[in-house]
Amino acid sequence: MPVTTKKKLLLALPALMLGYLAIVACWAWASFDPAMAGAGVPPAGQLSPRQTAILTLVEDPNFFEHRGVSLAKGQGLATISSAVARDVYLYGARFSGTAGALQALYRGVFDCCKKIDLGRDLMAVVLDARLSKHEQLALYVSQVYMGTHEGRQIRGLPQAAESYLGKPLDSTTIDEFIGLVAMIKAPNAFHPLKHRAAYDTRVARVRALVAGTCRPGGWFDTQLEHCSPGPASAASRVPSPTHE
Hints:
By secondary structure, the protein is mainly α. The protein is about 55% helix and about 5% strand.
């Protein structure tokens, strides 16, 4: 291939990416109302302030400050906003016509290339501009994937509490709630019944994070492999949220 042709292709790639993202943004904005009509935002208040603090500390440390995306330590590739955007836009309501064709395209791109696709992140930015943080959190709490139990998928922390602990979410202790949150990263790999040893190790690391005896080492440090149980009780050192 001639050098000039390679240069043209290299110059064209950023333009194509910008065009792709511009279409994603317009589609996400225009599709927000029909997408949310099928989402059914549950009432707020599913979590106590302390539970909210634990969940956001582990899954999205800057949730109440960022605008859909974040580079916080321990964040990894997804925020709570982007997880909700994925479920609302890509796997929630099924659109028809042009909107449906674009939805199928974006879903295919995400399934193929989620680690490098910026489309979901832009959807998260649009979602964050249109939906309050508390509504986002309520959706996340109600629909986050929590593994399989007795042959069925478990969706949401309330269903997980009933399935794995045999009690309502608002009756869980702090340590029990930490156990549920610890599963979120990989709920079948950190399954309390199927993979107890891996689950116990993960819970110990998350408990240390909550207790303040360790911190993520960087943006991609979601495994917390350097964390170990601290001397203090996690329940006694859980930070209180600053946004209620």
